Amino acid sequence: MSLRSVLLVLLSREANTGYGVGRLLHREFHHLWDARLQQIYGEFAKLQEEGLVKAQAIAMSNRPAKKVYSLTPAGVEALDEWLARPPALHAAKDDLLVQLSCLERTATGVIARRLEQRRDDSLTEAASLRGLILNTPRTDPDYLGRLLALEAALARTEAEASWCDKALPALREEAERPRTFATGADRLQIAG
Fold first, then answer.
1. Residue 116: is its pLDDT beyond 60?
2. Is 190 a residue whose pLDDT tops 60?
3. Average pLDDT, the chain
4. Does residue 111 contact residue 100 with C-beta atoms inside 8 Å?
5. Packing angle, helices 144-176 and 108-134, rounded to 10
6. Hey, which of 30, 36, 75, 99 would disulfide with 71, CB 3.0 to 4.6 Å?
C-alpha cells in the first residue's frame, strides 16, 4: 500500500483540502498509515500531474485561497483498479524488533525500557481504537469495512502489548546478569 492509495480512498469519500485529509488520516487511519502534511501535499501534486486528482481554489477572506482536492474520473478508475488487486503481504518495518534481534550488542536494560514504552504505547493505542470502535455505527453497512479494519488493528495492538508483557521478564532477567561487550577490534583478535 502507498500513500497514493490511502489518499485516493479518503478522497473517494469526499472532496477535501490537504490539511483536512491530514486530519482524516490521523483520525481514521492512524492505526494503518502515517504521513506528514508535506508528504500529503507532495503526493497530491503527483496525483494532479497524473490527472487522478483535481484541485479547486476556494477564495478565502483575509487568507490565501485554499485548494479542495477531489478525484477525477481517472482517479476513480485508478482507485477501483487498486481495490481489485490482491493486497501485498503485510511487511512490518519495526526498528525496535531489529534492535532486539541485536541484543548482544545493546544494553539489555535500554531495550527493556524501550519494550516497556512500546507496551505502554500499545495499551494507549488499544484504548483509542476501542473508542473509535464504540463510535462506529454497527448497523450501517457502509461502515462495516471500517469497523472490521478497526477491530483488526485493535487485535494487533493488543497482541503486541501481550507479547511485550511476555518478553519483558526475560529481558529483565538478562539485564541482571553481568555482561561484557566485545569491541570490533576484540572480535577480530578472537576470530583471528
1. yes
2. no
3. 85
4. yes
5. 160
6. 75
d(CA 4, CA 42): 10
Cell of 104: 548482544
Mean pLDDT, residues 103-121 taken together: 88
The grid cell for 88 is: 501485498
Enter the pTM of the model. 0.63
Instruction: Count Cβ atoms within 10 A of the Cβ of residue 47 and give its class: 0-12 exposed, 13-18 middle, 19 or more buried.
Output: buried
Q: How far is the C-alpha of 28 from the C-alpha of 150, rounded, in Å?
A: 9
List strand residue ranges (DSSP E) for 51-159, in order. Answer: 53-60, 63-71
Q: What are the domain boundaries of the chain?
A: 3-84, 95-180
- The span from the CA of 24 to the CA of 165, in Å, is 32
Q: Indicate whether 88 pLDDT > 80.
A: no
Write down the CATH number for the domain with range 3-84. Answer: 1.10.10.10
Alpha-carbon span 134 to 150, nearest angstrom: 10
pLDDT-based confidence at 104, cuts 50/70/90? confident
Calculate ∠ Cα 50-51-55, nearest 5°. Answer: 115
Look at residue 15 in the predicted model and tell me its pLDDT.
Answer: 94
Amino acid of residue 157: T
